[in-house]
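=== RUN LOG ===
request id: a7f3
mode: sequence -> structure
chains: 1
length: 472
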Amino acid sequence: MNAQPSGSERRAVRWQRYQAELIEHASAHQTLDAVGTLLRVTGLVLEATGVRVPVGSVCELRTEGQPPVLAEVVGFNGDRAFLMPTGELHGLTSGARVVPRPTPQQAPRFGAEGQRWRRSEDRGLHLPMGDGLLGRVVDSHGVPMDRAGPLDRVTPAPMTRRPINAMDRDPVRRPLDTGVRAINALLTVGRGQRIGLFAGTGVGKSVLLGMMARYTEADVIVVGLIGERGREVKEFIEDILGNEGRRRSVVVAAPADSPPLVRMQGASYATAIAEHFRDRGQHVLLLMDSLTRYAMAQREIALAIGEPPATKGYPPSCFAKLPQLVERSGNGLNGVGSITAFYTVLSEGDDPQDPIADAARGILDGHIVLSRELAESGHFPAIDVERSISRVMTSVATPDHIAAARRVRQLLSKYNKARDLIQLGAYVPGHDIELDHAVRLQPQITALLQQDMHQHAPLDDSRAQLGALITQ
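=== RESULT ===
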């Protein structure tokens, strides 16, 4: 029989193992963190001293007997850091401890449950990513909102990514079937395009987003509801998106009553989820409602920390944040997946020269304008074809399709310019052959552009109907 090791031998083995762990732990680079102190709360801004962490780091504000409050560093002035909370401030008192939040990194032996705490390398948010998000509704922190249990098959991932080199992106060369006849026929969208939906309130942009979510050819759909009314979140998911669209969708909701930092984080989280699936080779449809609410949240933060206002109260950082968010979508590296993105842009008072709308037109690959006049007349979707454009249509559509779409635009423009004369009875057929043709085809053009929200119009059928219209 083998002799069992004695007690002294077992103690020696344990001592040697303990020494090895101490040596390995001591050889690792460790950074000591200073705990700061909360000095001031003014509106949305928290001022703390003693905290020296990069902008974008997450901290916990701890008060005795109260749950910790999460806040993100958004700026600094000398030795004072400016933080924005991501939750309620009830119970927070002066002198609360400001503790930089560590980020878990999987590694053996160290920390609770085999985790090593990474302190200096990456202090930003790490939120859930993975297939377990499909069919779920989460908030800006990745916490489920649909009461369907905790998330599974997800792993924490950083929200910040290195931008893709513009020369490494695949060009937009393939058409994308959105299931909306007016878009497929006259404003053909390409896979990997970024396009804006410009509209005022109450003209049907949410319904149009729901139609595209149900009918667009995409592997994964990511919906970001940013700054919308809380009532609209559930209605969009249950009534507009429906069970068919929800099965392949991830919904990130940051309602209007959320702090501005949470609303911005919701847009970044939705984009990061889309990037995650794109990098796996899948084709993603990103629907964000709305880009304007994202800019408004950035305006609130920038003004709160003292940035001077510029155009209509929007500070310069708002116009710098928009392209940083939008440029994350699009085609990926050669042979990888794509993100086709639709961003809704609210025009305040239906003003097309709204600063956010004007900035968005310059950084997007096209815009679809929804008309209040068409919506009030019962024309849905209320797409104003004359004021809308897809800048990649010439790259994804055939020459015959482009010529037919251009011809319909000409006839529609001709009819609209003479509409007042027609309604007054001053129009006399026979004086303008082109106008006569436009008046004769107006019912067919209107039928082409109108579509019920529960009706699916494939791309091939839309092109065939457009071609049949032109030959009349």
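=== NOTES ===
Confidence is low (pLDDT under 50) at residues 105-121.
Residues 321 and 342 are 17 Å apart (CA to CA).
=== END ===
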